[in-house]
Amino acid sequence: MVHQASDLVGQTLSGRYRIDSELGEGGMGAVYLATDLELHGRRVVLKFPHAENLDDPAFRLRFRDEIGSLAKLDHPHILNIHDAGEHEGRPFAVVQFAGGGDLRDRIEEREQTPAEVLAWLPAIASALDFVSQSGFCHRDVKPANIFFDEAGHPILSDFGIATILQASPESGDVTFGDRTAIGMFVGSPKYCPPEALRRELSPAYDQYSLAVSVYQCLSGQLPVGGETSMDVLFAKNNEAPRNIRELVPALPERAAAAIMRALSRERSERFASCREFADEFAAGLGGAEGRSGSPSRADGLWWIGAAGLSLALVAGLWLVRGRVESSLPVSPRTPGPLVVTTLHQVELGSTPDEFRDAIGLCRLAVPDCDASWFASETERKTVLAPYALDLHEVSVEEFTEFVELAGYVTTAEQRGSGFHQFVEVEGLDWRHPAPGHGAAIPGLPVVQVSYFDAEAFCEQAGMRLPTEDEWEHAAKGDARRVFPWGDRWEPDRVVWGADDIGVVEVVDSRPEGESALGHRHLAGNVAEWTSTVSSGDRIIKGGSWQEMNPAQLRSAARAAESPEYASSEVGFRCVFDSPQPD
Asked: Beta strands 537-541 and 527-534: pairing type?
């Protein structure tokens, strides 16, 4: 039976996936937007192959390969596969919903600036290198397959033609697992490299396609043209691509040279990796100066996260993290009061009324406030085990003791830079938290610490980082306070809305803004890491001294950042697991 869109929309598949609408059709099949009824209404995408193709064994294998490829590639910037199922004999895949559109849409609206390219290029380059190191070649890198999630993170998609990097030495044919594709070209001729005609797969294959995508972003054109697909492929083998500076004269020469090198007809002349290409492009733009197009947290968009992060941050997975020897003594530390004393069901997130009020509060400060900014504050019930949360953020002197005891080196120290107001600055770390402010001041909360640094500190203290649910419950209490102190926005109770880190206060200040149990600065001062994972990032709670949008200081508000992120506005506190009474 061939399903029409109207047949599936409204149905619930596998008892949990309610199909809401059809997103479109492609060469492989139909794609639907659905709601996962078992996971708090999470939006997902269901991919169905065309029913008429299922009689073809090769097509079934190709669809199976797409699901298998995605499942194996666990990377924060590669589309996640959540599940797979079958409906009336028709298989489907359940994949991550990327609600921020794709790069093709952005190019169609207008040509992109170099800063906008740097907002996604490092992450996608890192993902492609990971694909290569995993033994795959994507084979279809193009703007339509570079998505963005609702938080602005770039995501590499569509592994429907991803291929194991194996070739028969006798025939040169490409091997698909236990099958061989003889004389077959698969991919997008506009974006594939010259060697595609010869079916030569290597990491340089995807690098070329990535460079074509960058070229098109900046110029609105392709480096090589032709009337038909075969014309384009033959032209790539016989003609040098047009120098991008002829189309974009303002592009710095070094950045243009990086693009043209990645577009070399000979794959041996390209960069050793996609990451190296991205680094050279960024260096050609002058490093941090190329990122001036990043979103501003002063515009009330701080929670959007990694879309404007630097190369070292977004693709910073290569960093060697500092580690604490397990034989070190545990520093004495007094946990805060028990927030939960026995297994306890709590209500979190935002109710419809709270959601409406959040938008209203946001629009008082940000006229173009968008309701989608708060869409992830899912109303939910959960059960928490006994725990005690620190009464305040970890201070500079507490972190100093930890560093001296463990000989620990933080992420920012290893990288040689930290972030201040969304700009990467050399020399910033927990000892030197912001430009022009000298050494860190005892009593203030420690900042310029990554998720990994915070995790190491808490482990050494015999504690751990709180989950998002624990942190939020400590702020809300059972009364579900909108802010730690109550339901009304009262700006004098919180450190916020500042242009300079000099306003940050000592960790035990502002008793007027504390929670029901006496926790200080759960709103403002510094935002705080939690252990909760979201698409490879970690959830951050509480807002910071820099936040200009009071709606982001509510207890339900949430942000997501790369675990490598170290900034002048992010700190942390720890939680202690209390044994449940007999």
From this structure: antiparallel
pTM (predicted TM-score) = 0.49
Name the more confident of 52 and 133: 133
Q: Which residues pair with 348 in a beta bridge?
A: 380
The DSSP code sequence of 140-176 is --SGGGEEE-TT--EEE---TT-EES-B-TTT-PEEE
- Summarize the chain as % helix, strand, coil (round to 5): 35, 20, 45
Of the candidates 5, 2, 106, the one whose C-alpha atom is nearest the C-alpha of residue 46 is 5
Helix (H, G, I), strand (E, B) or coil at 84: strand
Examine the pLDDT at 140 and tell me if it is beyond 70.
yes
**What is residue 507's predicted lDDT score, i.e. its pLDDT?**
96
Q: CB-hemisphere CA count at 13 Å for 538?
A: 23
- H or E segment to which residue 131 belongs: helix 121-133
Residues 401 and 169: their CA atoms lie apart, in Å, by 59
How far is Cα 538 from Cα 529, in angstroms, rounded to an integer? Answer: 7
**Which pLDDT score, from 0 to 100, does residue 515 have?**
96
Among 377, 295, 347, 381, smallest CA distance to 551 is for 377
Angle of CA points 441, 468, 517, to nearest 5°:
70
* Integer Rg of the chain from CA: 25
Q: CA-to-CA distance for 230 and 161, rounded, in angstroms?
A: 19
For residues 287 and 531, give the distance between their C-alpha atoms in angstroms, rounded to a whole number.
31
The pair of three-digit structure tokens given for residue 163, joined into one six-digit string: 């291929």
Q: Residue 571 pLDDT more than 70?
A: yes
The answer, yes or no, to whether residue 81 has pLDDT greater than 90, is no
CA distance linking residue 31 with residue 524, whole number of Å = 41
The total of other beta-carbon atoms located within 10 Å of residue 383's CB is: 10
- Spatial neighbors of 209 by CB under 8 A, at least 6 apart, are 138, 140, 141, 142, 188, 191, 192, 193
pLDDT at site 579: 54
CA pair distance 179, 58, nearest whole angstrom? 9
Contacts of 239 (CB under 8 A, 6+ apart): 224
Q: Give CA–CA dist 484/469, Å, rounded.
A: 14
Distance of CA 72 to the CA centre of its chain: 18
Q: What is the spatial distance between Cα 333 and Cα 329, in angstroms, rounded to a whole number?
A: 12
* Nearest-angstrom CA–CA distance, 399 and 405: 10
At residue 490's C-alpha, the angle toward residues 487 and 493, to 5°, is: 110
Q: Fill in the DSSP letter of residue 81.
A: E
Alpha helices in 220-307 (DSSP H): 229-238, 253-262, 274-284
Structural element, H or E, at residue 219: helix 203-219
What digits encode the pLDDT tens for the residues 178-227? 333 333 455 678 898 888 777 777 889 999 999 999 999 999 999 987 77
